Amino acid sequence: MTPEELDTFLSEQRTCRVATVGPHGPHATPLWFVWDGRALWLTSLTRSQRWADLQRDPRIAVIVDAGEDYGELRGVELRGTVEVVGEVPRVGAPVPELEWPEQAFANKYGDGTFRYDGKHAWLRLVPDKIVSWDFRKLANL
């Protein structure tokens, strides 16, 4: 994908698959996200296996994909390390860095109002590596 196609794709898709390294090996879970053009923002339950894994080892791989038939498959893999942004769990203390991801998340998945539940916290992935594919382009080769 071109950089523009990648940004559009990550802005439109709703669910990613997050892979972490657990004490007994890989652990993969679906999660919602927002993409700001540079970083993937994830809000995770702080009492989850995913959260525990990432506190021990912040390395992560994330897949966002789409398509039903083989010739329609397209997606993005993002790899790197996550960092926690804001309080844990998030209860709404002012954090300027979280204004954009919280509003984007509320717009994408809700009614435009972000609600703090005291169970989630924010993770930011600025990828070290991005790989994308779009099998729809194979017909043009």
Please describe what this structure looks like:
There is one protein chain. The chain is an alpha+beta fold and 141 residues long. 21% of the residues lie in helices and 40% in strands. The chain is built from three helices and seven strands. A six-stranded antiparallel β-barrel has the order 1-2-3-6-5-4. Strand 1 and strand 2 form a beta hairpin. The longest helix has 11 residues, at 99-109. The radius of gyration is 16 Å and the shape is globular. The two termini are 14 Å apart.
Give descriptors for this structure.
141 residues, alpha+beta, 6-stranded antiparallel barrel, 7 strands, 21% helix, globular
What topology emerges from the helices and strands here?
Blueprint lengths: L2 H10 L2 E8 L2 E11 L4 E6 L3 H8 L2 E8 L7 E12 L13 H11 L10 E6 L3 E6 L7
Antiparallel strand pairs: 1-2, 1-4, 2-3, 3-6, 4-5, 5-6, 5-7
First-last Cα distance: 14 Å
Which oligomeric form is depicted?
A: single chain
Helicity level, as a percent range? 10-25%
DSSP strand count:
7
Mean pLDDT: 96
Structural class: alpha+beta
Major beta-sheet overview:
6 strands, antiparallel, barrel
Question: Could you give the order of strands across the largest sheet?
Answer: 1-2-3-6-5-4
The shape, in one word, is: globular
Short description:
The protein has about 140 residues and is an alpha+beta fold.
